[in-house]
From TrEMBL:
Presence of keyword Transcription: yes
Taxonomic lineage of the native organism: Bacteria, Bacillati, Actinomycetota, Actinomycetes, Motilibacterales
Species this protein is from: Motilibacter rhizosphaerae
Keyword Kinase: yes
SUPFAM superfamilies: CheY-like, GAF domain-like
Keywords (A to Z) from UniProt: Kinase, Transcription, Transcription regulation, Transferase
A Pfam family matched in the record: GAF_2
Protein name as it appears in the record: GAF domain-containing protein
Length: 230
């Protein structure tokens, strides 16, 4: 078993380049489980407006417990994420704060849980959910404090991974747009040469053909440049 500081250092220095966002989040949950001693399963609940969903999890226990809360619209991980508070459930079988959730979670094998918000600047993007089949697994204040430290590091990684994925997507869209423009311009040139018409007339003809065939302009342009359409 590695020292906790070593695990936290790895979490803090998680590299995002050339790795899908889902893989990054999966590694975050794995490191969180390793760092938090009593943890048997860990998950990440993220918020998108009113929607809460599990972005990554280390095992079925965590996923089942999370989904019970989403189905019932209440539970510690959702409340921690939305209110930005730490919530400890010492004994799920006797928990009374979430009567529609706790008995069902106990039936799934959850003995106790710890839910910690994921803070980014002045807002919260979700929650770190830590589960155990044992009761009172997270009663120790030191465990709670460590989990908050893990959540702080995880929140930074998640926010950076989300921003990085968004930037990659924008770059991909820009590249596709530039490629489409280039092939359309090439097709226009072919039409201009064949029809002895202006650039505007060539584009108008290409647009009419696209509408008539109910196909994307770029797809027709590709076929023209490849000699499929003459």
């Amino acid at each position: 078993m590695r020292p906790t500081d070593q695990v936290l250092d790895e979490l803090a220095t998680t590299v995002l380049v050339d790795e899908p966002r889902d893989a990054v989040l999966a590694r975050v949950t794995a490191l969180a489980r390793e760092a938090i001693g009593p943890a048997e399963d860990v998950s990440l609940t993220l918020l998108e407006g009113e929607r809460a969903f599990t972005a990554a999890h280390t095992g079925q226990l965590a996923l089942d417990a999370d989904e019970l809360q989403y189905e019932r619209g209440a539970g510690p991980c959702m409340d921690a994420a939305r209110a930005g508070v730490v919530l400890v459930v010492s004994d799920m079988a006797t928990e009374e704060r979430w009567p529609s959730y706790a008995p069902a979670a106990a039936a799934k094998g959850v003995g106790s849980s710890l839910s910690v918000p994921l803070p980014v600047q002045v807002s919260t993007i979700g929650g770190l959910n830590v589960y155990s089949t044992s009761t009172h697994a997270f009663d120790d204040p030191d465990v709670v404090a460590l989990s908050q430290r893990v959540a702080q590091l995880a929140a930074v990684v998640i926010a950076n991974a989300t921003s990085y994925a968004s930037a990659l997507d924008q770059a991909r869209q820009l590249s596709e747009a530039m490629a489409s423009r280039a092939v359309i311009e090439q097709a226009k040139g072919i039409i201009m040469g064949a029809r002895r018409c202006s650039a505007d007339d060539a584009f108008a003809e290409l647009a009419r053909a696209s509408q008539h065939a109910n196909r994307k302009l770029r797809d027709l342009a590709v076929e023209i440049t490849q000699g499929v359409i003459r």
